[in-house]
Amino acid sequence: MDIEGEESEAQVSVLEELLKQTSFTKGIQEDIKILDRLVQKDNLFYGPGTISVNGVRSEDWPR
C-alpha cells in the first residue's frame, strides 16, 4: 500500500471514532433530556452519582 492509501485509512479510522463518540454523546444528551423532564414532572432529584425518587436514594434501591 502506498503512503497516501495508509493516510486515507488513518483518516477514515479517526472519522469513524469521532462518529462513535458523537453518537454516544447524543445518546447521553437524550438521557439528560429525559431526566430533566422527569425532574419537572415528578419528585425526582439527581445529582453527582445519586438519583433520588420520592426521597429514596439510588444506593438504597433494591437490586
Automatic annotation (TrEMBL):
Domain of life according to the entry: Archaea
| UniProt-recorded name of the protein | Uncharacterized protein
